[in-house]
Amino acid sequence: MATQQRPRETPVVTGIGVVAPTGLSIEEHWQAVLAGKSGIVPLDERCGPDYQVRLGGLVPGFDATAHLPGRLLPQTDRWTHLALYAAAQALDDAGVRPQDLPEYEMAVVTSSSSGGTEFGQREMQRLYSEGPSWVSAYQSIAWFYAATTGQISIRYGMRGPCDVLCCEQAGGLDAIGQARRLLRDGTRLVVTGGTDAAFSPYSLVAQLTNGQISRAERAEEAYLPFDERASGYLPGEGGAILVTEAAGTARARDAGDGYGAILGYAAGFDRSRHGRPPVLARVLRRALDDARCRAEQVDVVFADAVADPVQDRVEAEAITEVFGPRGVPVTAPKTLTGRLYGGGAALDVAGALMAMRDGVVPHVAAPVRMAPDYDIDLVLGEPRQRAVRTAVVIARGHGGFTAALVLGARAPEHG
């Protein structure tokens, strides 16, 4: 006789930790988003004049020594420091004590784009100026993309399946998608999301090769997605770490549905140089189908918003194709932070969950003059009050990575 298969539960987000140019907690970040308070600052002292990047999003006032064990600091890069700080926030927010849970039933899945470039550059400089004996023994692990996943796992004794996704800006959604798979397969809790800290000269040189970073010197002329003057995005650092659990597990410990449920996810890859609307539209439809959600049920789309004229056109046309002309409010809070690479999509997910909690769609806090042939309902000027029960987050990574996530205010009762 065939065994009865256990129904797969819907994952929910029960904790959020944020470390971003707009704040060092989810509430601080969210209030900055609603107020249109930017974390974009001049980069003169950080980058110097040779790199042609004048503006970016830097995390303000973050002191790793105040938040992390001293022994970890020389072993890890700033990007890992940011993630460890956000993970501690998320676990506390979820009311989870990892030491009380079976170690093999907890997992970690994070996203990284640049890895530990600041640490790596420092050690390479020591190698070439002082010799190999001056290079830190931790160079072999601190730069590595999986270092953040490993350090969170070690710190909290999480010995279940642990992964890292390296898909540039799309990686945050891909990490959450993998966390969803693990939860459906029986893992009790997954810490997921991502951070990045890519402002070392070594990292900036690599970023500049994509040709999409704005060289504007005034903040009001930089990072203008879907604008007729769009000239590229601004880089940023930070991100978000989430605690995800199966809905039944969360309800059993009286956490309810937390901030909301992960209803659907899909990913694809576009090999064309600038992307094509059919690829993104297909990913959006697959994510909606996965969520068993109709396009007209979606209350907001958090756009990828590259602010490159070609990429913006691709995204605008795909949104219009799936949701109809001006069929859904579209927003892009990342104009306040810059694109955070491995951390950016996870921060958008955090923002979408807050939009559902508070019944408000944040506006694009930039002086956007919409390109005349874009037929999307971009929220401008001020936040828009409305019930948000279902949200879609879009993320695209350089090179063709494409992902979409569907979030709901509640998990289905059976899940």
UniProtKB/TrEMBL annotation:
SUPFAM superfamilies registered for this protein in UniProt: Thiolase-like
Alphabetized InterPro entries for the sequence: Beta-ketoacyl_synthase, Ketoacyl_synth_C, Ketoacyl_synth_N, PKS_Beta-ketoAc_synthase_dom, Thiolase-like
Sequence ranges assigned to domain Ketosynthase family 3 (KS3) in this UniProt record: 8-409
Keywords assigned: Acyltransferase, Transferase
PANTHER family: POLYKETIDE BETA-KETOACYL SYNTHASE 2-RELATED, POLYKETIDE SYNTHASE-RELATED
Annotated family: Belongs to the thiolase-like superfamily. Beta-ketoacyl-ACP synthases family.
Annotated protein name in UniProt: Ketosynthase chain-length factor
